[in-house]
Amino acid sequence: MTANVVPALEVRNITKQFPGVLANDQISFTLLPGEIHAFLGENGAGKSTLMNILYGLYDPDQGEILINGELAKIKNPADAIRLGLGMVHQEYALVDTLTVTENIILGTELRNGPILNAKEASQRVRELSEQYGLAVPPDAIVGDLPVGVQQRVEILKALYRNVNMLILDEPTAVLTPQEADDLFRVMRELADQGKALIFITHKLREVREVADRITVLRRGKVVGGADPKTASEGQLAALMVGRDVVLKVDKTAANPGDAVLKVRNLKLRDDRGLTVLDDVSLDVHAGEVLGIAGVQGNGQTELVEAITGLQHLPTGSIELLGKDITNRPPRSITEQGVAYIPEDRKGTGLVLGYSIRDNLVLSTYYKAPFTKGLTFNDAAIDENAKELIETFDVRTPSATTTAGSLSGGNQQKIIVAREFTRENRLLIASQPTRGIDVGSIEFIHNQIIKQRDAGLAVLLVSAELDEILSLADRVAVMYHGKIVGILPIAEATRERVGLLMAGIQEQPNGK
Amino acid sequence: MANEQQAPAETKKPAEAKPTKRSLPWLSEAIVPLLAILTAVLIGAVIVFISIPSNKLPAFDLSLYGSRSDWFFSTLPERLRVTLSAFTGLFSGAFGDWSKPSTIPGAISNTLVESTPYILAGLAVAVTFKAGLFNVGAEGQLLMGALGSVAVAAFMPQWFGVASIPAIIHLPAALLAGVLAGAMWGIIPGYLRAKTGAHEVITTIMLNYIALQIMDYLINGVMKDKSATLQRTPFIHENAALPRIISKATDPSLTGGQAYPRLFTTTSSTWDLRIHMGIIIAFVMVGFIWWLMNRTPKGFEIKTVGENPEAARYAGMNITGTVVGAMGISGALAGLAGTSQVVGLEYNLKAVFSSGLGFDSLAIALLAKSNPIAIVPAALFWGALRTGAGAMQINTGISINLINIIQALVIMFIAADQIVRWIYRIKQAEGGKITFNRSWGK
Predict the structure, then answer these.
(1) Which of residues 402-431 of B touch A (CB under 8 A)?
(2) Torsions phi, psi for A143 (to 5 deg)
(3) Which of A29, A231, A307, A497 could form a disulfide with A226 if both were Cys (CB 3.0 to 4.6 A apart)?
(4) Which residues have CB under 8 Å from A11's CB, separation 6+?
């Protein structure tokens, strides 16, 4: 980089202390106009804290922020936007019932006296969208648009406010590979026109694809920078976690046995009468991982909930080891040997206000040895907690710490510990590693493969294609409630699966 | 970039978990309620200070005082005296005038008697708060309990055509009838909630009215004591009464010929106390509910359904059964509160029976943060205020409404605990949010 360019943003020695955690420790970096600067780090590395400081949501304890070479005080998001800094959060702040234009101009309406100047606003939106190649239908209702387009609306919202710096916080989490590629194209276009972009992610492949410069954070510190053209994914991952991680899961070829789970002709409509499951049939065999790929919201959740008894099914049948379990109560299905890692860790898998100890017996509390006579057997529950915390490497000060105060990775380990230690025949893992650190991902992946090798049938649902491709032995793709294809792992290339995920079928496929 | 080789020892440390420091957990839990009470009492004092009845003060006279404000300031000592007397009056009403020791047992007994139904009904509401339900129906459940118990206690011998039934059968039967009637009045809204989603706040409010009308109908109809001028049932049979602990023998001319039991009979007026075995039952129930909620799988299910119904369903818990069960237990406890009033204290059922006990119990459960043990001090506080209020009004002329104001302020400060935290600069404990209101407005 040339030295005489004034950085759009310069951060010097930002430090932020939370009770018990040094979230940001002397962080310094620069952001130049026209560059895409990626911040890579595990969950809890301090990325979000840093961005929230930049966006005026937190006050740093120390350090200074310079914008275009001048010292800036950012007390709230309004300050940030006035200084030219915009942010697209993971959760979009859009009003579903308003149009694209209305969403974009919300809060900065152009007016003729008290009357909204809708025509001019709509015109400006169109201009912006053409200038940056951000195709959006200005008059469509936002709630009707796909997620990828909604994200463009968010970006336009920032651009409409004349920002020249844009923070994108995990922007690809909910996108299909194709949508993600579109986003990268837009990001490049923005950078080429002089905007400075901060791209937050923990996906190594994307960083190398789109970033000009990489800064890696670990435990609140900048641990290094890297050039995306030369750094390998393995090197980046090592920087992130501080040790070499095996991204490819070590596993031998599957040795499938008999079908453990037989799902036949599941059909389901939601409350509005829209089809959610469209004649879904599949088998999962002992000793294999069947991965279900697909963008979220294409029926995976309902499929899994139907199998686990949480979703009532009007038609179709589900057999476990030759026994019909359709519409059986969840506990009866669990007791027949089904382990289940739910997709919503905090909302479903755990009671956040409970201790780790109690969460570890959430599904077995009523049985011996945890219950003796009418009351709990504390000794057995404590022993169970001690053992599982040790075996599953849950990092916690004590077993009585509440689950809610742990990091995502450790929370997920509690669920895995609880589910994997029952007598199981089928394992259902839904988004098992979403939003957790690389160390925990590796641990959980290895545990899943271990279960497979022990002869369990594994049904893995994930929106992360990389996860599916590295764990599964067969890949089924869901689109609009239908299984649009089942491929053996050898044939499941990123491109083929990606096209299926987008609903593009190469040839008619029966299953 | 590869210059960062990490020491493996570092990865073993707990990364993000916050250290949990808990020296006196109950104190940190209790601090906000205690400060809420303190603040409410102080505000109550200011209100008395400003609004002292004019007959307690020298009248305003323009020739004596230059202006209204001069008058106000010259009456400051008098105002202070009256304000203090209000609170000493309140205290001696609740705990006795300690310069006259003979008043102490009676006052404390009255406070305990007043607190007994508060403990039971407060527990009832606390159980539903734990389950994420908001049972506004304690009042109706209490009335149904009273009705059920008085029916058995007053009329059971008639049904079997005998003069009396041995106490060992009659008293338990009366208690059981009250408990079951209350439980039924809890199970109905519980079932409606679990099966149809009808919100328990709405259904319990409606069931309160239904219970009130049923009671009105019965005590003006088949259950009316024809010989009495008041609208009330006949006196219950002496074998169905809970014994008083220590008291003079009953005067049969005042109790329809019944001689009600006492554990100890006295002739001393000092020890002629109203306290009855209901308080013992209440304490036993506190222990039982604590045990149920903290030591048993059923209690674990109730708490889990309250904390996170999604997780409860996922963990295979029976949500319908748990909701219905929690409402049933709650109704049973509220029914027991009504029962103990009938068979322990009143010995009959009058039209003006409850006077809002069931609604005060909501406040008590809030004040105790739904902790079964903390229900006891909360109910005693409420009972002491109610008992002391009468004495205060008689002795100092301060309106009994002062107590209503203090009670309302306590609830306001508990519900909006941020106000108290702000006044006293108390930091929010980690994860210390009250979760009783999960179901509000759903």
Answers:
(1) 430-431
(2) -60, -25
(3) A231
(4) A27, A28, A29, A30, A50, A54, A63, A64, A65, A66
Chain A positions in Cβ-Cβ contact with residue B17 (cut-off 8 Å):
20, 395-397, 401, 405-407, 410
Alpha-carbon separation of residue B107 from A169, B101, B120, B274 (angstroms)? 66, 10, 21, 10
* Measured distance CA(A33)–CA(A445) in Å, rounded: 40
DSSP string, B337-363: HHHHIIIIIISS-BSS--TTHHHHHHH
A373 reaches B (C-beta below 8 A) = no
How many angstroms separate the CA of residue B3 from the nearest CA in chain A? 9
Alpha-carbon distances of B156 from A209, A403, B340, rounded to whole Å: 86, 54, 17
Q: Are the CB atoms for B333 and B124 separated by under 8 Å?
A: yes
The residue among A119, A120, A131 whose CA lies nearest residue A155 is A131
| Residues of chain A where predicted confidence (pLDDT) is lower than 50 | 1-2, 509-511
Cα distance between residue B273 and residue B270, in whole Å: 8
User: How far apart are the CA of B417 and the nearest CA of chain A, in angstroms?
Assistant: 19
A-chain residues near B10 (CB < 8 A): 242
In sequence order, the 6+-apart residues with CB closer than 8 A to the CB of A483 are: A280, A281, A282, A476, A477, A511
Distance CA B170, CA A122 (A): 82
Q: Which domains are assigned to chain A?
A: 9-241 (3.40.50.300), 246-337+424-511 (3.40.50.300), 349-422 (no CATH)
Please state, in angstroms and rounded to a whole number, the distance separating the CA atoms of residues A128 and A110.
15
Residues 6 or more apart in contact with residue A330 via CB below 8 angstroms: A308, A309, A310, B313, B314, B315, B316
Contact A44 B19 (CB under 8 A): no
Which of B291, B314, B370, B433 should be substituted to probe chain A, the one whose Cβ sees the most A Cβ atoms within 10 Å? Answer: B314
B13-B18-B22 Cα angle (round to 5) = 120
pLDDT for A491: 92
Q: Is the pLDDT of residue B223 over 50?
A: yes
pLDDT digits (tens, 9 = 90+) for B32-68: 889 999 999 999 999 888 887 777 777 777 777 778 7
Burial bucket for residue A181 (CB in 10 Å: 0-12, 13-18, 19+): middle
B2 interfacial to chain A (CB closer than 8 Å)? yes
Question: How many angstroms separate the CA atoms of B434 and B417, rounded?
Answer: 10
Nearest CA to CA, how far is B311 from chain A (Å)? 4
Cβ contacts of residue B81 below 8 Å, gap of 6+? none
| Residue B217 in tokens | 């109908």
Strand partners, A478: A483
Spatial neighbors of B425 by CB under 8 A, at least 6 apart, are: none
d(CA A210, CA B227): 94
Chain A window 40-99: which residues touch B at a Cβ cutoff of 8 Å? Answer: 44
Instruction: Write out pLDDT tens, residues A258-274.
Output: 999 999 999 999 877 77
Partner-chain contact A405 B316, CB within 8 Å: no
Residue contact A342–B314, C-beta within 8 A:
yes
DSSP conformational letter for B276 = B
Task: Determine the residue among A307, A366, A371 to mutate to test chain B binding: the one whose Cβ has the most chain B Cβ atoms within 10 Å.
Answer: A366
Q: What is the pLDDT of residues B90-138, one digit of tens each?
A: 999 999 989 999 999 999 999 999 999 999 999 999 999 999 999 999 9
The string of pLDDT tens digits covering residues A101-144 is 889 888 776 666 777 777 888 888 888 888 888 888 888 898 88
Interface residue A242 vs chain B (CB under 8 A)? yes
What is the DSSP annotation of A265-323? EEEEE-TTS-EEEEEEEEEEETT-EEEEE--TTSSHHHHHHHHTTSS--SEEEEEETTE
Nearest chain B residue to A22, by CA: B16
